[in-house]
Amino acid sequence: MPENISEKNTMTDNANIDFKEIKKILIVQFRPFGDVLLATSHLATLKGRFPRAEIDFLVKHPYEEILDDNPYLSQVIAVDQDRGFRYVWKRLQLIREIRRRRYDLIIDQQAGTGSGQLVLASGAPYRLGWRHGKVSWGYNLKAVRKTARYRALQNFDMLLPLGIQEEPARFFFRIKPESDAYVQQWLIQNGLARQSFVLMSPGSPRKRKKWDLVRYAALADLILSQTDMKVVLLRAPSEYDDCRQVVEHSLKKPLIAPPTTFNQAAALVKSSRLLICNDGGVNHLSVALEVPSLAIFGNTSWQIWSPQEAFPDHYHLVNPAWQRRSDNSFGITPEMAFQKVQQILAGARP
């Protein structure tokens, strides 16, 4: 808890907040997996500032899986991703439910038009969001993002109007026993032990984030031929074709992981020696699980989405000279990536 915080404090835009009134808090972060996970990095700090408050989290299905058993949350509210008339009807019902719960403080981490509308209609006396957000006029507490840095740390900027200073980010993600059992059975069936394989996640729902699959295949061959590590390809349900292409272009034929839920995927990450991936949610998951990672960046900001500067054993690879935005090589060769992999496996800091 920060020092010298009075029960009555003057906040951003001269809004006065009585900390004794804060008994029910709602955090809004609808999606995606990575952003929901990143939004949990300051929950311990927030709970420390308001130890007697109930903290709820509003998320869209199926991302509530990330928040299972989170010790800092009282309740997770999951809503369906509807469209058309059904979306309007469900949205009105959601607004009524939020008003019924009578939150004292709502924190809009999503910073979108939809989340901002909910916050404005909530009836909450304190509404916290980004000063430069799309609906910033609906907030009476406004936060300002400071310098570009890993988003898990940047999220602490949101808490500054509450008088909360930055602390080390602390993720929480629980792997269910049944998920671990599912993964361990598959590993045994394929002759793999914990820490005996490198996990690759070559797919991405956003094409511009995806390093060239042929290069992933070449990197897999280098690992399989020049180290004692096996290679397993992790996939979301929609990414099987990406993994299949990597296998087709590989001479050494890495294994494709079985279908997994997000929790089962976490169990597989936890069992691996190293995760190699694109910029995305699985990279943040490796941070939460304390499994070393190497993320390959091209079209997105490593300053914001790479954990390298904040967390040990998590690295990124980027070529600042690369200019061809339509070229998914990202200016990074398999040999460049393999050099980093060797250093990480040897325990050296790249």
Kindly report how far apart the N and C termini lie. Answer: 35 Å
Q: Any idea of the CATH class of the largest domain?
A: Alpha Beta
Q: Based on DSSP secondary structure assignment, what is the total number of beta strands?
A: 14
Number of domains: 2
Shape: elongated
Put simply, the count of helices is 12
- From the 3D coordinates, which CATH architecture of the largest domain would you assign? 3-Layer(aba) Sandwich
Portion of residues in helices?
25-40%
Biggest beta sheet summary = 6 strands, parallel
- The rounded Rg comes to 22 Å
Tell me the structural class.
Answer: alpha/beta
Task: List the secondary-structure elements in sequence, H or E.
Answer: EEEHHEEHEHEEHHEHEHEHEHEHEH
Describe the protein in words.
Helix 11 (302-305) links the parallel strand 13 and strand 14 (314-317). The protein has helices at residues 33-38, 43-49, 84-101, 113-121, 151-154, 177-189, 213-226, 240-249, 262-271, 281-289, 302-305, 334-345; strands at 8-10, 16-18, 24-28, 54-60, 75-79, 105-108, 126-130, 141-143, 197-201, 230-233, 255-256, 274-278, 293-296, 314-317. Helix 6 packs across helix 9 (262-271) and helix 7 (213-226) packs across helix 8. The chain is elongated and about 65 Å long. The chain has 350 residues and is an alpha/beta fold. It has two domains: 8-162, Glycogen Phosphorylase B (Rossmann fold, 3-Layer(aba) Sandwich), CATH 3.40.50.2000; 177-345, Rossmann fold (3-Layer(aba) Sandwich). Helix content is 33%, strand content 17%. The strands form three sheets. Strands 5-4-3-6-7-8 form a six-stranded parallel sheet, covered by helices on one side. A six-stranded parallel sheet has the order 11-10-9-12-13-14, with helices on both faces. Strands 1-2 form a two-stranded antiparallel sheet.
